Structures are given as structure tokens and as C-alpha cells.
């Protein structure tokens, strides 16, 4: 990709002077997203068994976009109502609740194949 020139100042240019679309190595490096933004999509594509991978990716992608939309639509309104510190506190509590859920309910799968994990989860 050819970097976008901006004659009015840095604008959308990254600190290195490249356009935001070229972060991560351009088209060969994954396009417009920096490497850390691609990690969840890579992990999601690897954790589902082949038989349900397409449907599971569709569901998780829809949930991801839906939650992002919900947060985007409500953030400014809620910030005006209760203030930024309380909004950040609520998001922190939600993140901690998610962490507790993962630690308590998600089994350790290190060193197991997807088939072994499926058998173990089917028993539960």
C-alpha cells in the first residue's frame, strides 16, 4: 500500500510517518490492523473443532461486534450520567468477573488435543 499523504499535519499518520493502513506490514502483514489486534481472531480460529468452526466463529464474531457496538453506543451517555471514574470502575469490575469465570469454570487444556478437550467437555 502507498502511504497516505496528509498536508494538514500528522492526522492519521503513525509516529513513523506511515499511514495507519500500513501498520503491521501492509497487505502481506495482515492489512490495517497492528499485530496485537489480530491475536484474538487467530486464537478463536484455532480453538474450535473443524466440525463447528464456521458456526462458532460466526457466533463469536457476532458477539464481539455486538458488545463493541453496545459499549460504543452507551459510553458517552453513561459517562455523562455517572462520570468517567465510575464508568472505568464498572468496566474493571466486569473484567474481573470475566477473569473469575475463566479461572473457576474453564478447564486447563495445556498439552491436550482438540479431540481430547471435546471428550472431556462432553463428560461434564
UniProtKB/TrEMBL annotation:
Keywords: Cell membrane, Glycoprotein, Membrane, Sugar transport, Transmembrane, Transmembrane helix, Transport
Entry keyword annotation includes Metal-binding: no
Principal location class: membrane
Topological category with respect to the lipid bilayer: Multi-pass membrane protein
Record field: transmembrane: 56-78, 84-106
Compartmental location: Cell membrane
GO CC terms, sorted: plasma membrane
Residue spans of biased composition, Gly residues class: 23-32
GO molecular function: transmembrane transporter activity
Keyword Transport (UniProt): yes
Family assignment from sequence similarity: Belongs to the major facilitator superfamily. Sugar transporter (TC 2.A.1.1) family. Glucose transporter subfamily.
Name the UniProt record assigns to this protein: Solute carrier family 2, facilitated glucose transporter member 12-like
Species this protein is from: Leptonychotes weddellii
Amino acid at each position: 500500500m502507498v502511504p497516505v499523504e496528509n498536508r494538514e499535519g500528522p492526522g492519521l499518520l503513525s509516529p513513523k510517518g506511515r499511514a495507519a493502513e500500513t501498520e503491521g506490514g501492509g497487505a502481506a502483514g495482515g492489512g490495517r490492523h497492528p499485530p496485537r489486534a489480530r491475536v484474538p481472531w487467530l486464537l478463536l480460529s484455532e480453538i474450535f473443532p473443524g466440525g463447528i468452526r464456521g458456526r462458532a466463529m460466526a457466533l463469536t464474531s457476532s458477539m464481539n461486534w455486538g458488545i463493541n457496538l453496545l459499549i460504543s453506543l452507551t459510553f458517552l451517555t453513561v459517562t455523562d450520567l455517572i462520570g468517567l471514574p465510575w464508568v472505568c470502575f464498572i468496566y474493571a469490575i466486569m473484567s474481573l468477573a470475566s477473569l473469575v469465570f475463566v479461572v473457576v469454570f474453564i478447564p486447563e487444556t495445556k498439552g491436550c488435543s482438540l479431540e481430547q478437550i471435546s471428550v472431556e467437555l462432553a463428560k461434564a
